[in-house]
């Protein structure tokens, strides 16, 4: 083995879980980074009882994909590894195509890894990706969480995503592939300056003379990830003292909340919003800052499909009626991403928000102890315009509403960013 290869192998071993999993999945697109990832992992785990399995996602968007799949299949063949092609059956949906393709890719890959009993899935993000991500996030005034960059490990949908190339340079990996006679596909969008990432790459070249190099930015990301972990732990400890769950609402003790450092208070609020809405991404900083200012002044507000109510000693964060007014689900299915309403089999029953019209038919709603605004957005059982039940507003009629997430999930959100 030549000396430079040993260097890469050492780098990759540091990025693999310890102890090694018995089954490890690798996501390979046919580009240089992930082909190098596959070859290096196969060498790094050779003889250590690890079963590798490879997947390529075909988004059905570009004609070059057939050639990319062929390149991956050939390397898998040489290495004696199973290779699966996962196809994205795109459905017409609103939203940016690139974003949707990316989300679908992660869903397909994690689903496939789970189906094959793979504990971990390796992705080929490199040090260059990390540095470019930091530059892009600087332009969006990121805080500690954003500047921690791409995490080297992260659990998503039950699968541990690992990125063993995160400290290794793209150019070095290309040289490795050339040395080993492995062909790769070049993504034409890598030169398309309409993409932020391509412009960030060009900006990095300009910044290098100032010492703002890829390696320096990788170190910044690591420093920020350490700070992020400390802040997350502090937020978790604070939450245990001041946060509780009341039916579908998050309650925060106001006085203790106001005594917390701003950054910790902000984290508790963001976790509350994400716990209620199920959104992966938090709302933008500026509206969050406005809401925190409003809480300080004892006013409430609306944010990200939630209401923030300040009453006496408590801050209540609940679902906003307007965010759920159009939602409908059959009984037993999940409504608003978090409620499951069950009851006697009833022809034509459907779950919709209670709203004002429903609340007017619930004389005992005040017994719940929850405010009007919170109760309006709770699930109710309807048959057309007839209200059959409102289990969270004192009109049970044999129906029951259960949350699909609780306090544990709230605390988990404080740890994931
Ligand atoms: N079509 C694909 N099939 C299988 N794996 C893929 C595919 N595209 C990307 N990957 C995996 O994801 C890694 C990162 O690729 P890329 O930077 O293009 O993805 P991304 O999802 O846009 O990244 P990010 O997560 O930063 O948005 C690749 O090295 C590879 O491991």
Automatic annotation (TrEMBL):
Keywords: ATP-binding, Cytoplasm, Ligase, Nucleotide-binding, tRNA processing
Reactions catalysed, as given in the entry: cytidine(34) in tRNA(Ile2) + L-lysine + ATP = lysidine(34) in tRNA(Ile2) + AMP + diphosphate + H(+)
Positions contributing to ATP binding: 29-34
GO molecular function term, any single one: tRNA(Ile)-lysidine synthase activity
Enzyme class: ligase
GO biological process, alphabetically ordered: tRNA modification
Family annotation (InterPro entries): Rossmann-like_a/b/a_fold, TilS/TtcA_N, tRNA_Ile_lys_synt, tRNA_Ile_lys_synt_N
Superkingdom: Bacteria
Domain notes: The N-terminal region contains the highly conserved SGGXDS motif, predicted to be a P-loop motif involved in ATP binding.
Protein name (record): tRNA(Ile)-lysidine synthase
Organism: Cribrihabitans marinus
């Amino acid at each position: 083995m030549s000396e430079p290869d040993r260097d890469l192998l050492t780098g990759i071993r540091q990025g693999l879980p310890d102890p090694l999993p018995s089954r490890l999945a690798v996501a390979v697109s046919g580009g240089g980074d992930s082909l190098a990832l596959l070859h290096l992992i196969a060498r790094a785990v050779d003889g250590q009882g690890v079963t590798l399995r490879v997947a390529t996602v075909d988004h059905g968007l570009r004609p070059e994909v057939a050639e990319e799949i062929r390149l991956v299949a050939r390397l898998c063949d040489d290495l004696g590894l199973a290779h699966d092609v996962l196809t994205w059956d795109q459905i017409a949906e609103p939203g940016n195509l690139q974003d949707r393709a990316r989300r679908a890719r992660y869903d397909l890959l994690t689903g496939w890894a789970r189906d094959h009993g793979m504990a971990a899935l390796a992705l080929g993000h490199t040090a260059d990706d990390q540095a470019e991500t930091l530059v892009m996030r600087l332009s969006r005034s990121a805080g500690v969480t954003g500047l921690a960059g791409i995490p080297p490990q992260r659990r998503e949908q039950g699968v541990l995503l690992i990125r063993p190339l995160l400290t290794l340079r793209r150019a070095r990996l290309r040289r490795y592939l050339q040395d080993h006679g492995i062909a790769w596909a070049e993504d034409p969008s890598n030169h398309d300056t309409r993409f932020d990432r391509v412009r960030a790459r060009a900006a990095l070249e300009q910044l290098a003379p100032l010492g703002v190099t890829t390696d320096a930015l990788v170190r910044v990301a690591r420093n920020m990830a350490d700070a992020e972990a400390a802040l997350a732990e502090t937020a978790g400890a604070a939450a245990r003292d001041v946060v509780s769950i009341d039916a579908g609402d998050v309650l925060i003790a106001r006085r203790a909340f106001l005594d917390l450092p701003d950054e910790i208070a902000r984290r508790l609020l963001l976790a509350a919003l994400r716990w209620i809405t199920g959104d992966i991404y938090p709302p933008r900083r500026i509206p969050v800052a406005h809401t925190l200012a409003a809480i300080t002044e004892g006013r409430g507000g609306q944010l990200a499909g939630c209401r923030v109510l300040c009453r006496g000693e408590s801050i209540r964060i609940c679902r906003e009626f307007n965010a759920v007014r159009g939602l409908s689900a059959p009984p037993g299915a999940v409504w608003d991403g978090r409620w499951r309403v069950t009851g006697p089999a009833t022809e034509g029953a459907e779950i919709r928000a209670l709203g004002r019209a429903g609340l007017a038919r619930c004389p005992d709603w005040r017994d719940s102890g929850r405010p009007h605004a919170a109760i309006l957005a709770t699930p109710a059982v309807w048959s057309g315009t007839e209200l059959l039940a409102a289990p969270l507003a004192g009109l049970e009629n044999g129906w029951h509403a259960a949350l699909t997430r609780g306090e544990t999930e709230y605390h988990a959100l404080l740890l994931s960013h």
